[in-house]
Specification:
Layout (H helix, E strand, L loop, with lengths): L3 H15 L16 H12 L1
Length: 47
């Protein structure tokens, strides 16, 4: 995001919506992205 005014507005809105709650990701910390699958798809899309 390069528009600083937009970024500040989005951050303010997010803070208001969270109402003091803390976001916790539902994705486990030890889960790694499937990079092998993404790489295979990228290679097959070049063909």
């Amino acid at each position: 995001m390069t528009n600083l005014a937009f970024l500040k507005k989005a951050q303010k809105e997010h803070k208001e919506r969270m109402k003091g709650r803390i976001y916790t990701s539902p994705i486990p910390d030890d889960l790694q992205p499937p990079l092998e699958i993404a790489k295979a798809q990228a290679v097959s899309n070049k063909s």
